[in-house]
Amino acid sequence: MNRSELFIQIIALATLIIACVFVWVVTTEVFDVDSEILSAPMDMDSESDLIGRLYRMIPFLCVALLLSIAFAFYIEEWLSDTTWYYRVINQQISILANIPSVIYAILVVLIFLFQVKLFADFTFVLGIVFLVVPVTIQTTQNAIQGVELSVREAAYALGADRLQVIADHVFPRAFSKIIGGIFTALSRVLAIAALLVIVCEIRTSIIQNVSSFEISSNVFVLISLALLSCILSSILQKNSNS
Amino acid sequence: METNNHSIETKNLSLWYGDFQALMDVSVNIPEGKITALIGPSGCGKTTLLRCFNRVNERYGNVTTEGEIKILGKNIYDPDVSLLELRKSVGMVFQRPNPLPISVYENILFGLRIHSPFGRLTRSQSDEIVEEALTSVFLWEDLKDKLKTRATSLQLEQQQKLCIARLLPLKPQIILMDEPCSALDAKGTLAVEELMGILAGKYTFLIVTHNMAQARRVSTECIYMFLGELIEHRETQALFETPEHPKTADYVQMRYG
User: How many angstroms separate the CA of residue B113 from the nearest CA in chain A?
Assistant: First the structure.
């Protein structure tokens, strides 16, 4: 990779972060979430506060998933794979998708523990974006690439245009793999959410100086949901060819 | 020969994939209603030339084309040419049978559905179209009870015939075939060749083949290409028996390579 391409990579990363801010603002507006609550300092001792904040991320999560699927279709179907920006985008996505989710978790927990209160929710938003978007884009890309060339050629040669080929053939053929990718991303998010809840509980028990420490049912629910989505994702990605 | 007897005319057609020139100054006239075979060693640009004629080449980025291709008297690189209409009149059959992974019935109607998107076909009309298309490729007897099965589960020979059949409802004038028999066994090859012979009067066939016996059996005219250049274009029998160009002679008498 030459220097100018590295520069472009850095700019791309910066743009991604700005895009996160934008999407966050838009989603909070659209779903009419009180933005004052969102940016309000967090009550660090309260687990219910944390859970509430996590719930409020759900609409954001859905939008992030839809946008990443749309983006994956855009790069696979509209960008030519010989261009430099295709390479840059792909490189960025695979870097981000291959970072173990625990690293994002540590970052989120650190900000959470250091009580950067003002941006508590924004931390979650960034966490979701980095946990969900690259993985979803990558799995969707793989799903699209998995659609046989012969199917596309046949449809194009019969005169179908790009949208018809995508809607009639690529999307239905890739559908179960795309859903599988969504579940992969969900399991990452749920596991990290469970971790956050545990950290919150440990913190509370330290502050209150309780000698016995009990893990709440929330954690178990989150972990079992994470496992469930893992299983679903592998089933869906395996079964896609039948 | 008069010009209006040519389905396809190219003039000084050159094509590059990036820096690599795949076609050099190809000028050729393909006669209407006959079978023309394209022969030549691998990588000589046969398939590239074939793919130019319905512009499927353009889907791979980095392709530059120069020169003129006239199909049925119209330059296909004119800005007002719609790819949809072009691909309707120029059908293509691929090397490996590639029926769409949907039912036999839907495969045949797929082309029509694209070209008339608002579902103006009634049930009886579409039944009729399917029967007609399958009958003309002699598949109706075999498949009339299997119209709902997935096309990809048929035998290869039936799949390839189906690929031809699904072009027919669009009423193409030209059918391009890229080694249509290379994935088939001897029986399948024979069946597809017979089919081409029967359909030849109605449609113009352009077939790429590595099998010289096949070129000799099915085609009326034959084109020999070598490294992106058109070396010789004559009637098949003449080309095989008295080749004018030494390179053609080497190839058709199997001295090539």
Answer: 9
Q: Which two tokens stand for residue B247?
A: 């390179």
Q: How many helices (H) and strands (E) does chain B have?
A: 10, 10
Residue B206 belongs to what H/E stretch? strand B204-208
What ipTM was reported for this prediction? 0.78
Q: In terms of pLDDT, which residue wins out, A58 or A211?
A: A58
| R_g of chain A, CA atoms, integer Å | 20
Are the CB atoms for B157 and B191 separated by under 8 Å? yes
Q: Write down the pLDDT at residue A242.
A: 44
Closest by alpha carbon to A194, among A232, A162, A229, A159? A229
List of chain A residues whose C-beta atoms are within 8 Å of the C-beta of residue B88:
159
Q: Please say if the pLDDT value at position A69 is more than 90.
A: yes
Contact residues, chain A, for B62 at CB < 8 Å: 80, 82
CA distance A146 to chain B (A): 14
The amino acid that residue A168 corresponds to is: D
User: Does residue A118 surpass a pLDDT of 70?
Assistant: no
- Give pLDDT, residue B95: 86
| Res. A2: pLDDT tops 70 | no
Contact A158 B101 (CB under 8 A): no
CA distance B147 to B106: 9
Contacts with B166 from chain A: Cβ below 8 Å: 158
Question: Nearest CA to CA, how far is B92 from chain A (Å)?
Answer: 6
pLDDT tens for A38-60 read: 444 455 556 677 777 788 888 88
- Retrieve residue B50's tokens: 């074939």
Check: CB of residue A181 under 8 Å from CB of residue A143. yes
Q: Report the residue from A80, A82, A158 with minimal CB separation from B110.
A: A158
pLDDT of residue A40: 45
Q: What is the pLDDT of residues B183-195, one digit of tens each?
A: 888 888 888 888 8
Written as one string, the DSSP assignment of B116-166 is: STT----HHHHHHHHHHHHHHTT-HHHHTT-TTSBGGGS-HHHHHHHHHHT
Q: Alpha-carbon distance A112 to A42, whole Å?
A: 9
Residue contact B87–A157, C-beta within 8 A = yes
Whether B23 contacts B228, CB under 8 Å? yes
